[in-house]
Amino acid sequence: xxxxxxxxxxxxxxxxxxxxxxxxxxxxxxxxxxxxxxxxxxxxxxxxxxxxxxxxxxxxxxxxxxxxxxxxxxxxxxxxxxxxxxxxxxxxxxxxxxxxxxxxxxxxxxxxxxxxxxxxxxxxxxxxxxxxxxxxxxxxxxxxxxxxxxxxxxxxxxxxxxxxxxxxxxxxxxxxxxxxxxxxxxxxxxxxxxxxxxxxxxxxxxxxxxxxxxxxxxxxxxxxxxxxxxxxxxxxxxxxxxxxxxxxxxxxxxxxxxxxxxxxxxxxxxxxxxxxxxxxxxxxxxxxxxxxxxxxxxxxxxxxxxxxxxxxxxxxxxxxxxxxxxxxxxxxxxxxxxxxxxxxxxxxxxxxxxxxxxxxxxxxxxxxxxxxxxxxxxxxxxxxxxxxxxxxxxxxxxxxxxxxxxxxxxxxxxxxxxxxxxxxxxxxxxxxxxxxxxxxxxxxxxxxxxxxxxxxxxxxxxxxxxxxxxxxxxxxxxxxxxxxxxxxxxxxxxxxxxxxxxxxxxxxxxxxxxxxxxxxxxxxxxxxxxxxxxxxxxxxxxxxxxxxxxxxxxxxxxxxxxxxxxxxxxxxxxx
Length: 575
What we know:
Elements: E1 3-9, H1 13-24, E2 33-40, H2 46-51, E3 58-64, H3 69-79, E4 84-89, E5 92-93, H4 98-108, E6 113-116, E7 119-121, H5 129-144, E8 163-166, H6 167-173, H7 185-195, E9 199-202, E10 208-210, H8 216-236, H9 254-265, H10 270-280, H11 283-300, H12 304-311, E11 317-320, E12 322-323, E13 335-336, H13 338-350, E14 354-355, H14 358-367, E15 375-382, H15 386-397, E16 402-406, H16 416-419, H17 431-438, E17 442-446, H18 459-477, E18 483-485, H19 493-500, E19 505-507, E20 526-527, H20 534-543, H21 547-558
Parallel strand pairs: 1-2, 1-4, 2-3, 6-9, 7-10, 11-15, 11-20, 12-13, 14-15, 15-16, 16-17, 18-19
Antiparallel strand pairs: 4-8, 5-10, 6-8
């Protein structure tokens, strides 16, 4: 037997009458495939319909008490005899070549693979807001993955409908975990397989259709079922955390984040939102209802404080350059006086902020390791010598740390990249100073070898800037440098690819707050200006940028007080 189709069903008699004939009518030799259907305790006489079918291929009907789809599929897989197992849902309409395409894909693949085919939403699906939502989500996903040959890790590494796997690989991996039935069993198995090195191929010719029949109210039930299993998966597979549903808790602008948290903590039923979505046919309302119910169910399984600490933390990142007296030829926008810097650090300490490191954020994002209640990350680009004289002693006095991004070819030298733009020469930290302060709580990352705009470089130069700077820092400090700050903020896909093999996270000059779902290679920062008040600092911590900064600049422009761009005072962009 070459392939076994395994289907679990529960109270879908009418759907099976439409879908099962398409499974049985395949262009694959009937002697080479079988269909195994597990009736998971249906009460609508599904078994009578199933018993009425005849087929040229082997058709096996198993009946068992209702225990959920995951356990039902495990029963079906155990009874199957095919070399390949193809899992379908009872609402899937199959083209005649579906089995042939799955078999061909496995024959062409090297190594252990899961083969998945696209599942389109059938025009036969009932017209309602739930169908609208799933169709919109499906179209968005396909648009974002139009050229993909493998499923996206880790969110799509799952053994869901229209996916196939060799029977021996499935059984050797332990199969579906009954603890995750009826929800997220497909994802848990997929993540487990991925850890074993299994690849998840997307075979576009193995296309099928789904007759989507769920209602808005049934989606609310699904959300509650998913919540507990999603929590468990995040804890068992922390690499999934950043793409989990919980990563959306702090997504979006402040008003949206605040409203979402308020709704999640308010004791009204999300089914009210679902009903409103049904009446207005609003996809946005239905999505909000589903997300609210999922987040609320998860949060209520523990305390809100614990749930927020595990999934809802935000990280403001403050960006500095110089800290010291303003010298002739220094761009004032890049300088903060020692007195102002001390007042900022004192304010942070007094208001309960604790500094964290790039490593701490990485460990929270990827593994769920705890963070301080009010974390802030202080970063310094370029590694100027005045930091050792003015900034680092202040940080040490308050028990604060920081991350400094070093231009490795210029250690102990000067800022020649800025001198080309009219700046005076400014000394940079020496190797001895970097080693000394790294032992005193200051973290060091890479700012490239020579401070170029990385987006202007060819592949060879990108590799040099990435690898040589990493090698220099690790040789100097004896530890691997995990973080990188893009010079001038310049980043594109080629730059990201060059960095990804050497670093684990990177910072832009884009503004905003970082959260669980933030791209680790596009982390945001807000640059502290030379004249920032403590109120300005507070705005940067709350919003990830200063909303009134643009207003001030516009007012100054209207009054004619902004110097021309060729003035030394404002010649350099933020770095």
